[in-house]
Amino acid sequence: MFGKVLIANRGEIALRIHRACKEMGIATVAVHSTADADAMHVRLADESVCIGPAPARESYLNVPAILSAATVTNAEAIHPGYGFLSENASFAEIVAEHGFKFIGPSAKHIAMMGDKVTAKRVISEAGVPVVPGSDGPIDDLDKAARVAADIGYPVLVKAAGGGGGRGMKVARDETELRRAVPAARNEALVSFDNGEVYLERYLGRPRHIEVQILADEHGNVVHLFERDCSLQRNHQKILEEAPSPTLDDAQRERIGQICCDAVRKIGYASAGTLEFLYEDGEFFFIEMNTRIQVEHPVTEAICGLDVVRETIRIAAGERLSVRQQDLAINGHAIECRINAENPETFAPSPGRITEFHTPGGLGVRVDSALYSGYVVPPHYDSLVAKLIVHGATREECIMRLRRSLGEMVIGGIETTIPLHQRLIAEPDFASAAYDIHWLERLVAGSG
């Protein structure tokens, strides 16, 4: 096992990784920008190194600075968390070339799944159902029109690289398609330095179902069941729950086994998540995330397994600590992503935290790096806390979540707590009658 791990991230995920390391007896190194000098993970880590000024490109994306910090602190491994460099194949390769262990999958698998066209082809060949779409990137508008006619409108124009809803446009006819393709290309080029786009069938009211897998270097693979991440705004997840209230045990076992077989076939090793659109009883693969996910705590809650700990163990060459037959779903869990944003306009709301009180009690967990007096910087993602609740049933879980949201206090900034309170009070949420477009319809209706 590693003696020291450098955490190449910030915020709640950096603190989460630090906690997992300390419980394993591993020393930690926090790297940080000047804006994060007083961050909680920096305060708690065994060592800390400032790697640059506030802009992420000059600090958290500064590969030479991160490698220098690992060198001077004698770290043995680097955990990238999520975001920033976590799905950068070049970074994973450079880390290995410099004698450090990258806590994540191989650079080959990161690159394979980072290009969505390649990922769909590889996953399809491994036996996973995919959304009908173009065989590869679309290089001209006439070809796009022919492919769209074969698929059937509406179609989705998607960036081959990146994610988060950027480089993604819906076209309901050929006229819209001829506008959408260049618009998506330009957005993808600016966002990901890759202007390739491809086409997929646009599903009307699907749910977003994702399967969490763990795989070690010895060929062992397990799935940790699924998460339902259908509550989204601008393709960004807002609330996640596990298990999905839509699937039955047979569907759950079928898609879980399909994912395990595919991951084993391609030789993947680490934590990973295969994401699907689910409509009318059918699963359609959309992408694989080759990293720890923001929403991993809901899986931990229903499985009783530390997913971050497993990623560290896998990177150290150890075997998975569980077999598939050891795993069972225990109750229900829901996670609310709490952002430093106005709950109606979603405008960012950085600033000093004047008061911070987290809810407690049975089945309540808060992952956050906030504390009273901390200044939320304006330079990074607006996620400031994750509230995770667990209950014996979904109904009990919702009641616990309602109570916990009412107890949670974050003073000095605006947050999306009121939005979550509104969401869980909706009859459609209580009955689980929602899809990936439901939240945007709700927000648009209130506007």
Please tell me about this protein's structure.
The protein is of the alpha+beta class and 447 residues long. The chain has three domains: 4-103, 3-Layer(aba) Sandwich (Rossmann fold), CATH 3.40.50; 132-201, 2-Layer Sandwich (Dna Ligase, domain 1); 207-446, D-amino Acid Aminotransferase, Chain A, domain 1, CATH 3.30.470.20. It contains 15 helices and 20 strands. The chain has helices at 11-23, 40-44, 63-72, 89-97, 107-114, 116-125, 141-151, 174-192, 249-266, 296-303, 307-315, 394-407, 417-425, 427-430, 438-446, and strands at 4-7, 27-33, 47-52, 77-79, 101-102, 155-159, 168-171, 197-201, 207-215, 221-233, 236-242, 270-279, 282-289, 332-339, 351-352, 355-357, 364-368, 375-376, 383-391, 409-411. An eight-stranded antiparallel β-sheet has the order 13-12-9-10-11-14-19-17, with helices on both faces. The chain has a five-stranded parallel β-sheet with strand order 3-2-1-4-5. A three-stranded antiparallel β-sheet has the order 7-6-8, covered by helices on one side. Strand 4 (77-79), helix 4 (89-97) and strand 5 (101-102) form a beta-alpha-beta unit. Helix 7 (141-151) crosses helix 8 (174-192). The chain is globular.
Any chance you could write out the topology, listing elements then pairs?
Blueprint: E1 4-7, H1 11-23, E2 27-33, H2 40-44, E3 47-52, H3 63-72, E4 77-79, H4 89-97, E5 101-102, H5 107-114, H6 116-125, H7 141-151, E6 155-159, E7 168-171, H8 174-192, E8 197-201, E9 207-215, E10 221-233, E11 236-242, H9 249-266, E12 270-279, E13 282-289, H10 296-303, H11 307-315, E14 332-339, E15 351-352, E16 355-357, E17 364-368, E18 375-376, E19 383-391, H12 394-407, E20 409-411, H13 417-425, H14 427-430, H15 438-446
Parallel strand pairs: 1-2, 1-4, 2-3, 4-5
Antiparallel strand pairs: 6-7, 6-8, 9-10, 9-12, 10-11, 11-14, 12-13, 14-19, 15-18, 16-20, 17-19
